[in-house]
Amino acid sequence: MEGRPGWFSDSRFPGMLRWWDGDRWTAHTCAPITARRRARWLVKFGVGMLAAGFVATLATFPFIWGDPGPDHQLDAAPSWTNVTLTLGFVAFGVAIVSLLAYRWANPQLRKRRAAERLG
Length: 119
Prior knowledge:
3-stranded antiparallel beta sheet, mainly alpha, rod-shaped
């Protein structure tokens, strides 16, 4: 095969690109830009949801696990604390799912990292 140099689909690793230097295939590979952008979005979304869950959960701590009053009973927590705590835990769950989706959606990135470690 002869032709112009460039990035082409790699037959050994579907979803990856391999560099053709004009004479032969090189060892240089990369993931397509679209997969990288999707992966970055998943990570940013997951980290954002993790932060939102942390803030929402932290906001309820003084009301739920606060200092008992002089009669040793907690004051009645405001009605929004249950909703906020629930939303915080939901945000944690969404963050975990999105970060796991990043790993599962990008097997070519795992293969590439494994190949880089070996070689």
